[in-house]
Specification:
Layout: E1 2-3, E2 11-12, E3 16-23, E4 30-38, H1 48-62, E5 68-71, H2 78-86, E6 90-93, E7 100-103, E8 106-109
Parallel strand pairs: 5-6
Antiparallel strand pairs: 1-2, 3-4, 7-8
Protein name: Transposase IS4-like domain-containing protein
């Protein structure tokens, strides 16, 4: 749900968005690599996880797979962790407070 552009600013249905941007160490420049809008109401919509994995595939190709994925806790899902690990991607995900971080074989509650 988003506010529309009218003076009343009513809440209306909106679209989900995926964005992948690149930033290089030591540079203030950012480069857009991928952007998509999607709706759960679309007849060809498969799922949000698939949309996120598609964005990672497209962004990874654009960055020649030389990247560290930094993702907010909305990506704290087993299926996305599995995809990142299977594709040997480096990543940093802000985990939810109900997940343990395993460091040196020891569980650390976030």
């Amino acid at each position: 749900t988003v506010r529309d552009g009218s003076e009343d600013g009513e809440f209306v249905d909106g679209y989900w968005t995926n964005q992948v941007i690149a930033a290089e160490v030591g540079s203030n420049e950012i480069i857009p690599l991928y952007h998509s809008l999607f709706s759960q109401e679309s007849p060809d919509f498969v799922g949000e996880n698939e949309e996120i994995m598609k964005a990672m595939d497209m962004g990874g190709k654009a960055a020649q797979n030389k990247s560290i994925w930094v993702i907010d806790r909305g990506a704290d899902r087993d299926i996305l962790f599995e995809s990142l690990l299977e594709n040997k991607r480096d990543f940093l995900i802000r985990i939810k407070n109900n997940r343990d971080l395993i460091h040196d074989g020891e569980a650390i509650r976030s």
